[in-house]
């Protein structure tokens, strides 16, 4: 289905397999299962995917605005050149349910309690996002942009943050002895937390 048509019916989603240049507005797909769907150049506005299962679905050049994808279950889902803005994506296991390449950007969104463990996220953009208790263990994310993010209790262990941008990020706890930080940029006063593993006292 194409031609820029605006779709608001959940039944249309369940009946179609290929969507191109479509705007979805106000859809509530909570608890539904979407299987083997193809979406390209589509836009999602104020849609709900709470606990939705995305099985072998592909999204390319898609944009989500003010959507709720919390606890969405991903099974072999593909995301290429996709953007999320002002959306909730709490508790999503991106690490276990997505295929590579994974090219996604997030802005002003809440990704708390989500897992990106062991993923390759080179140059990923997560600007001004809430990432509380997110898991970045053993994640390769050189040149990532985490500027302005809330990283309270986010897990960084064996993480490659070389040349990453963490300016104006806050509440992070990153051990320089357990992670790669060469060339990474931080802002004061939050950057002082990097000294905690060394038991340094700064007056």
From TrEMBL:
- PANTHER family membership: ANTIBIOTIC RESISTANCE PROTEIN MCBG (PTHR42999), PENTAPEPTIDE REPEAT-CONTAINING PROTEIN (PTHR42999:SF1)
| Name this polypeptide is given | Pentapeptide repeat-containing protein
The organism's superkingdom is given as: Bacteria
Which InterPro entries would you find in this protein's record? 5peptide_repeat (IPR001646), PA_immunity-related (IPR052949)
Matching Pfam families: Pentapeptide, Pentapeptide_4
Its organism's taxonomic lineage begins at:
Bacteria, Pseudomonadati, Planctomycetota, Planctomycetia, Pirellulales
């Amino acid at each position: 289905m194409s031609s820029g048509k605006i779709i608001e019916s959940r039944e249309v989603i369940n009946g179609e397999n290929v969507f191109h240049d479509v705007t979805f507005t106000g859809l509530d797909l909570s608890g539904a299962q979407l299987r083997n769907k193809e979406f390209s150049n589509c836009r999602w506005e104020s849609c709900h995917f709470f606990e939705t299962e995305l099985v072998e679905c592909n999204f390319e050049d898609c944009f989500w605005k003010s959507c709720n994808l919390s606890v969405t279950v991903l099974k072999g889902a593909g995301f290429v050149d996709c953007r999320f803005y002002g959306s909730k994506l709490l508790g999503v296991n991106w690490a276990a349910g997505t295929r590579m390449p994974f090219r996604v950007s997030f802005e002003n969104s809440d990704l708390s309690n989500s897992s990106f463990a062991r993923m390759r996220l080179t140059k990923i953009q997560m600007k001004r996002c809430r990432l509380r208790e997110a898991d970045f263990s053993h994640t390769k994310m050189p040149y990532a942009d985490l500027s302005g993010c809330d990283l309270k209790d986010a897990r960084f262990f064996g993480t490659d943050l070389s040349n990453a941008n963490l300016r104006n990020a806050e509440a992070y706890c990153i051990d320089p002895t357990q992670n790669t930080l060469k060339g990474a940029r931080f802002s004061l006063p939050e950057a002082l937390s990097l000294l905690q593993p060394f038991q340094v006292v700064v007056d």
